[in-house]
Every structure is written in C-alpha cells, then in structure tokens.
Amino acid sequence: QVNSKQGGSPCQERHVALLSPVGKIEISGCETGVHEIKLPRTSVLPSGAESSVTCEVCEGAEEMPEPLQQCTAWLRAYFCEPATTGSLPVPAFHHPLLQRDSFTRQVLWTLLNDVKFGEAVSYKQLADLAGNSRAARAVGGAMRSNPIPIIIPCHRVIRSSGDAGNYGGGQLLKEWLLSHEKLQKEKLAR
Questions:
Q1: Which residue among 30, 55, 71, 154 is the active-site one?
Q2: What is the pLDDT of residues 120-161, one digit of tens each?
Q3: How far is CA 161 from CA 9, 82, 154, 158, 164, in A?
Q4: Which class is domain 14-87?
Q5: How far is it, in rounded angstroms, from Cα 85 to Cα 142?
Q6: Where are the domains of the chain?
Q7: Is 11 a catalytic residue?
Q8: Phi, psi for 63 (deg, rounded to 5)
Q9: In this structure, are strands 23-29 and 157-158 parallel, antiparallel, or unpaired?
C-alpha cells in the first residue's frame, strides 16, 4: 500500500504484466504514478537482442491509469524500438523513495537524466555526477533500492574495472540489457 500525500489515503493500486523478451515484467502503480517494476528472475535469456521479439501487455490491460500506459509504452519501445524511447514521456513515479528528498533519490534522478541509452558509468562516476565523489558505496545502495529498474537504468552502472557488477534482476539480465543497448546503438549509428 502506498499512501498519497493528501490526507494519507491509500491509492488505487493497479497491476499490469508485460511479456517482454526477458520474461514477464510486473508493473504496479496508480493514477499518480508508477510504484514499482518487478523484473523476472531468470536463468535463461534469449540469445541476441532481436528487435522482432514481441513485447505485449498480457495482464491488466483494462482500466490502466495513464502512468501505467506510459510505462508499458516506454518498456515496449525500449525492447522493440529503442530509438523512440527519447521521444516518449517518462511516466510519473509514485514510490515513497522517489517522493522524499534523499541522496538515493538524487542518484536515481541523475542516472535517469544523465546516463543515456547504450552508455555505462561506474559507481564512482555516478557518485560524482550526483554531487558526492566519495559516495560510490551509497550509489550501490541506491541501485539496490531502485523501484523502477530499466526506466531508471541501474543496469548501466558498472564497476570501475569494467565488470558488470551486481543487479537486482540477476547477472544474466544485466548483461543482456547492456548488450541489447550496445547492439541497438550500433544499429542506429550505421
């Protein structure tokens, strides 16, 4: 249950499931914004990042509030037509972590706004971007608590050594997302 700001009444939470190339992604949210994106825990991923794969809402399509419509449209574009994500609105977020002012929120917004598709930054570089060069460990904590993965691209944060590092969706998924972005970016450059 997420309480809205006015009077603390609980919002009308809705759930949507999106069947994506990496499995079933569960999204929850309300009229105000997206609460959470849950990634599938998977041990097998499709080989190669074919953009011909489908990405469809498989549950909860009826009565979808606007933030969930925007979220599913954005994720569908991310997997199927990545070049179009830049022209789509990022859905509003309505998760307590993203409501109150904190270093975690600052790190997540910095990541969303400054680290573009196909790019990667180290935890230290992201700490610098967020305004505290000595907070690389805190950046790791912020990545672990990110309620909106993929849209807030915590998969783009890697170790200084170039190693992918940990990921809430698992190592395989992180590597798949990074390689999907790299392949799509190369396609666009041609």
A1: 154
A2: 999 999 999 999 999 999 999 999 999 999 999 999 999 999
A3: 46, 27, 17, 8, 9
A4: alpha beta
A5: 24
A6: 14-87, 96-189
A7: no
A8: 50, 50
A9: unpaired
